[in-house]
């Protein structure tokens, strides 16, 4: 299945791997594109997360477009929030192609646990993220999906 990651310095990362895509290619989600259930992995310092979250290919398309813009300009910031709001992060460029990712993951299981995370990355890692997101977009389309 598809996946994308944002790698960072010192082995830190955020990774999302698709488990199942709903409605593809016939019916789209009201969140844009197709609804996706996937595995989220976060490594930030000594903390690790592995959980299932929901998002949509439309949300990933929007994130890709914003990420391309700030990456091309090497300034600005881009935010990502999935529709369940259990994952939120901001990627902000600092200087010379470096960026900081600050985020929050909320595990709404039996106990309400939260992880505030932060790690540094740079333009070389983000170029790989953009390539991975473009592959997803080629298959699943934009917020309207690939319906003809």
Provide an overview of this structure.
The protein is α+β, with helices and mostly antiparallel strands. It has a single domain, classed as Transcriptional Co-activator pc4, Chain A (Roll), CATH 2.30.31. Helix content is 24%, strand content 47%. It contains two helices and eight strands; from the N terminus they run ββββαββββα. It has helices at residues 57-73, 123-140; strands at residues 3-7, 13-22, 35-44, 47-56, 77-81, 87-93, 98-108, 112-122. A four-stranded antiparallel beta sheet has the order 1-2-3-4. Strands 5-6-7-8 form a four-stranded antiparallel beta sheet. α1 runs antiparallel to α2. It is globular, with a radius of gyration of 15 Å.
